[in-house]
Write a structure and sequence with these properties.
Cathepsin B, Chain A; 18 strands
């Protein structure tokens, strides 16, 4: 497998596994997305919307796995489904009914494909700093986010009690009520900017993630600036070139953010708030990506991404569907998130952590 980490399990996840493995019903394994209960309808609809928003061919057959509870997630009801087409995984749907959030990833699908083909039981869990990892008797695999930390709490017996084999079920394309993904489109508008996917790094001085800087670098390189830089090399350049009083090391605060843009003569305007969907459309349609700062509802965790696209469509007799495309430095591909309502927030469920506050932006 391409990404094989050590045979270790994040402490909190192992603790939860040991404590809760005897209550198998705590795992959302039996949730059937083709049933007509409210949550199943919502998940089915979310899955169809993400497939459509990402341009998948509905003439093919798609399959969805059983649901996996994400152990160690900030939100207790956070679950993940693995989506398949032609016997290979094509993405992961993360869903939380409590946070009213869903996200679609396309990360390290070859790992999920191999585990499914081997019928290897797995557990889904949050990584050290959020994201999603899967654990099996073969080892621990980080799909996105930060790696699982190395410790001695791996317990094979406990793992086997909670691990579930991936089972695939064909997805019906009918969306309940009057909603149908193959019905005639009434509206469909989209715009995607091909910003480069820039990998996150860790500050060598503070050991804190540099998502804020990786997101800036993605915007700079999209505008043909800062080529040749990595997140870490840009960190050293900013450390040497941007002076902020009483701040010896660059971090994600306004003087360093604006100073980094300024080093490359990249003009930005700052807003200490989120944006409405229509405002995002206006900016993206001019060809400019948006630097986005997100926080959790308890204000204890922050993350930076680049908002680089949108899609909005409706079907005959259906509600309006809205999506953002994000460049997350913790991922290797773009992420699609659903957007509800007309407010200035959107909720980003990254598996282990849910960011529900859009606190500021540069555009």
């Amino acid at each position: 497998m391409k990404t094989i980490l050590n045979r270790a399990l994040f402490f909190a996840v192992v603790w939860l596994t040991v404590v809760l493995c005897l209550t198998k019903t705590a795992v959302a394994d039996d949730l059937d997305i083709d049933s007509e209960d409210g949550q199943s309808v919502e998940i089915h609809e979310a899955l169809m919307g993400f497939l459509f928003a990402n341009g998948y061919d509905f003439n093919k057959e798609y399959y969805c796995s059983n649901a996996y509870k994400i152990w160690g997630s900030d939100v207790p009801d956070n679950i993940v489904f693995f989506v398949f087409c032609e016997n290979r995984c094509i993405g992961e749907l993360v869903y939380s009914s409590r946070a009213n959030a869903s996200s679609f990833y396309q990360e390290h699908c070859e790992i999920v494909t191999e585990l499914a083909n081997q019928e290897c039981p797995i557990v889904a869990c949050s990584g050290k700093g959020g994201g999603l990892c899967i654990v099996s008797s073969e080892g621990s695999f980080c799909l996105w986010g930060e790696d699982i930390i190395d410790d001695s709490f791996f317990n094979t017996e406990s793992l086997e009690k909670c691990a579930i084999t991936i089972r695939k079920k064909r997805i019906s394309f009918v969306l309940y009520g009057s909603r149908h993904c193959q019905s005639r489109l009434e509206t469909d508008e989209s715009s995607y900017l091909s910003v480069p996917v820039i990998a996150n790094a860790t500050s060598p001085d503070t050991e804190v993630g540099l998502c804020w800087l990786a997101s800036i670098l993605s915007m700079l390189q999209y505008s043909n600036k800062a080529y040749g830089h990595t997140t870490l090399s840009l960190y050293y350049y900013v450390k040497m070139s941007v002076y902020v009083q009483n701040e010896p090391y660059p971090r994600g605060i306004t003087p360093f953010i604006e100073g980094t843009f300024g080093l490359f003569n990249y003009p930005v305007s700052f807003t200490e708030a989120g944006m409405t969907f229509d405002s995002v459309k206006t900016v993206i349609n001019t060809g400019k990506p948006i630097w986005v700062a997100l926080m959790t509802s308890d204000l204890l965790d922050a993350h930076a991404v680049v908002l680089c696209g949108y899609r909005a469509f409706s079907h005959t007799g259906a509600f309006f569907y809205r999506y953002y495309r994000l460049m997350d430095p913790n991922c290797t591909n773009y992420v699609t998130v659903s957007v509800s309502g007309t407010g200035t927030n959107f909720t980003y469920d990254n598996g282990g952590t849910i960011y529900s506050l859009w606190t500021s932006n540069y555009k």
